[in-house]
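::Amino acid chain::
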Amino acid sequence: MPSPSDGFVDLPGRHPGGGGLRFHYRDWGGEGRPLLLLHGLASNARIWDLTAPYLASRFRIIALDQRGHGLSDKPEGGYTFAEVAGDLEELLEALGLERPVIVGHSWGGNVALQFAAGRPHQTSGIVLVDGGFLEIAAFPGMTWERVQQVMAPPPLDGMKLDAFLQAARSWPELAPMWSDRVREIVMANFEVKDDGSIRPHLSRDNHMRILRSMWEQRPSELWEKLRCPALLVPAARESPDPRNAMWMEGKRRAIDIALQKSPSVRVLWMQDTIHDVPLQRPLELAAAIAEFAGGLP
């Protein structure tokens, strides 16, 4: 399996909200069509550590820490979709990545869709991994006030590292797959301070700025602008939690809209799978991405 190198690139910030930022990325090398991998909200580029090695034999693989996340710069603003899509445009130019397939997990899927819809000649295809197609404001009663109540980040800043790791190992979704590599991926979301406590790389204020952008985004209005093929990879699993049924119904409704509005959309459900598909199903996800990207003109 290939090992990645870590790189940094300074982008000039020519787009709205710019001003020049330094971005971190993971580079698996590889030949062939470029694939740009985007993480979700409050995540980081290392979410792809288990999936990317399976792709590097056929494609050129880059995973980005988006602004506010991981080791990239963290401005107190610039988190609209116009601005984060502008980051991608400058990154592609700086790294010489021509018409990549953009693979986005969760919020990263929303970024990928926004980029592809607004820049139809700069993307050869998009893969949306359990994200990008959901329209938060379409859920009944999901006002911005409600979003702030149910989707705000947990108060982890200042929590002791040992206590956090003990809790993380017990999370129902992560416990079955916990390993040293998963621990490294999770910890890449945090700074460990001198007193042994943790601080999320993504501040609460920036987290809420991104949530606001997600609530305001209308994916249902972007499908008709899409000119490249798209593969949607939603996760499905049974859960007694009534919120799971609500989200699953929202996924199905949003995917139906995508299929109705864009003839270029394909769907591959990942059954019995948690939201963090790149952690639980890295081989299956890589196979789906490779089949899709390898079949593009």
In short: The chain has a mean pLDDT of 95.
